[in-house]
Amino acid sequence: MASWKLAELPKFVKLLHQLVTSEQNERCRSVRYMGYYRIGERYLQQLVDSDYWVRMTEEHHCQQDKKKKISHQSN
To answer: What is the DSSP code (8-state) at residue 12?
Structure first.
């Protein structure tokens, strides 16, 4: 077990804070990548971003389908 001197306590607190902050950021990132979103102020923007990309993907697929139908009708 590591022994900490009183003078090194600020370093330890800073290191502990960095670890906790890193863990919180990583958790948010993993939640975002899995597609699960919590309803809260900081997650609302992620929901908006997710909806935007889903809508854009759906529109892209619809445009591709329309192009395929038009090309089949002209042949």
So the answer is: H
Q: Measure the CA–CA gap between 14 and 10, rounded to whole angstroms.
A: 6
35: left (phi over 0), alpha (psi -120 to 50) or beta: left
| Those residues with Cβ within 8 angstroms of residue 38's Cβ, 6 or more apart along the chain or in another chain | 31
Confidence bin at 50 (pLDDT 50/70/90): low
Assess whether pLDDT exceeds 60 at residue 5: yes
- Contacting residues for 51 by C-beta, under 8 A, at least 6 apart: none
Give the H or E element holding residue 71.
helix 41-74
Query: Per-residue pLDDT averaged across 25-29, rounded?
Result: 67
